[in-house]
Design a protein that fits this description.
This protein has helices at residues 42-56, 127-132, 134-144, 169-178, 198-208, 231-236; strands at 5-6, 14-19, 61-63, 73-75, 90-93, 98-104, 108-114, 119-125, 152-156, 166-168, 186-188, 193-196, 213-216, 245-251. It is of the alpha+beta class. The protein has one domain: CNF1/YfiH-like putative cysteine hydrolases (4-Layer Sandwich), CATH 3.60.140. Strand 7 (108-114) and strand 8 form a beta hairpin. The protein is globular and about 55 Å long. The chain starts with a strand and ends with a strand. The relative contact order is 0.21.
Length: 254
């Protein structure tokens, strides 16, 4: 099975892809294109990462972060060794040949592109990162490289959908304290619980921050076992590991 790389027309000018688990070499519970080193044979993970880059930007140099559910962003001016990757949750660059990657397993990956300025970005937007401003921080970092917020297109990739994301009352209260209008991202569920729309919440932050164009793929990681890894699904099944997928973006080859 070949690698599946989902794309979006808003990012058509960049080399990009939201990848899932199809087309990789990992086996067992992690079968497919697992790109996490923490749960798999490192040789298989390295091979999967190479397959992912080849499917999106052949010959590109992959750069990722050690993700910590923060709003921290790094600017990639030159490639670093994987062992030296910084602790952050978003990356931006204006360097040809660099491919930015973020890993997810229910959190929302967001890819950014300013075609006029030649700047790209990638963010890992779990609820914590989105809540504390990782999307806004990514836009600011892109602007520091010459991008214009009005020219930036951003797309929210595969993540856990509202129908699959049950949260408790404490979780919901945190968002309502941030802004009462956040109530629109919650649908009432059983007593003391609600269903949270992570994708809509992230997209709203992007729009409110003045992003020129915002898109969403509308793909539920939890509900599509054959296509995506899911932390929550694996947890509900008491599986030993859950794997990660990767979303990639780089400037198109000239």
């Amino acid at each position: 099975m070949s690698v599946e790389a989902l794309t979006h027309p808003l990012l058509a000018g960049a080399a990009h892809g939201f990848l899932g688990r199809r087309g990789g070499v990992s086996t067992g519970e992690l079968a497919g294109l697992n790109v996490s080193y923490s749960e798999d044979d490192p040789a298989l993970t390295a091979q999967n990462r190479a397959l992912a880059v080849a499917a999106v930007r052949p010959g590109g140099t992959l750069q990722t972060c050690y993700q910590i559910h923060s709003a921290d962003v790094v600017t990639v001016a030159q490639a670093w060794a994987d062992a030296d990757r910084p602790r952050a949750d978003a990356l931006v660059t204006d360097r040809p040949g660099i491919v930015l990657g973020v890993l997810t397993a229910d959190c929302a990956p967001v890819l950014f592109h300013d075609a006029t300025a030649g700047v790209v970005g990638a963010a890992h937007a779990g609820w914590k990162g989105a809540f504390t401003g990782v999307c806004e921080a990514t836009l600011e970092a892109m602007e520091a490289l010459g991008a214009s917020r009005a020219n930036i297109a951003a797309v929210v990739g595969p993540c856990i959908a509202q129908k699959s994301y049950e949260v408790d009352a404490v979780f919901e209260a945190r968002f309502l304290e941030q802004a009462p209008e956040n109530a629109r991202f919650f649908r009432a569920g059983r007593q003391g619980h609600a269903w949270f729309d992570l994708e809509g919440y992230v997209a709203s932050h992007l729009r409110d921050a003045g992003t020129g164009k915002v898109g969403m793929l509308g793909e539920d990681t939890y509900a599509q076992e054959a296509r995506f890894y899911s932390f929550r699904r694996a947890t509900h099944r008491a599986e030993a590991g859950y794997g990660r997928q990767i979303s990639l973006i780089g400037l198109a080859a000239g």
